[in-house]
Amino acid sequence: MAKVKLVDLAHARSGDKGNNSNIGLIARTPEYYEALKREVTAEGVKRHFAGICLGQVERFELPNIHALNFVLHDSLDGGGTLSLRTDAQGKTHAATLLMMEIEA
């Protein structure tokens, strides 16, 4: 086991729905999906987004496409029409998650 960044194991997409951001994390191989399921928890994602995600993080498994989906509640400072943040729609959240390190 060694520390690796998620970008080496997966690709990701993100976006918004109101004040919540949504991140899809898709494993590059079925074997990598097993590592993602084991290592990328809702609690770990919440810690990784400390100061950005002020609400809970939910994780959903999509085994048929080797993916995990995360919903980061209260993470966009009100959302696209209210926020003064540079990224009010959470488009950079996927890239931010891919910098997270896990044991694999």
Protein described:
It contains 3 helices and 6 strands; from the N terminus they run E-E-E-H-H-E-E-H-E. The protein has a single domain, classed as Alpha-Beta Plaits, CATH 3.30.70. The protein has helices at residues 30-39, 42-48, 93-98; strands at residues 3-5, 10-17, 20-27, 57-62, 67-72, 101-103. The protein is globular and about 40 Å long. Helices cover 22% and strands 33% of the residues. The longest helix is centred in the first third of the chain and has 10 residues, at 30-39. A 4-stranded antiparallel beta sheet has the order 2-3-5-4. Strands 1-6 form a two-stranded antiparallel ribbon. By secondary structure, the chain is an alpha+beta fold. The model has no long low-confidence stretch (mean pLDDT 90).
CATH architecture: 2-Layer Sandwich
Number of strands: 6
In order across it, which strands form the biggest sheet? 2-3-5-4
Question: From the alpha-carbon coordinates, what is the Rg to the nearest angstrom?
Answer: 13 Å
The biggest beta sheet reads: 4 strands, antiparallel
| Total count of helical runs of at least 4 residues | 3
Q: Report mean pLDDT, rounded to a whole number.
A: 90
Count of the separate structural domains:
1
Strand proportion: 25-35%
The proportion of residues forming helix, as a percent range, comes to 10-25%
- Structural class per helix/strand content? alpha+beta
Shape estimate:
globular
Write down the CATH topology.
Alpha-Beta Plaits
Quick recap:
This protein is an alpha+beta fold and 104 residues long. It is built from three helices and six strands; from the N terminus they run βββααββαβ.
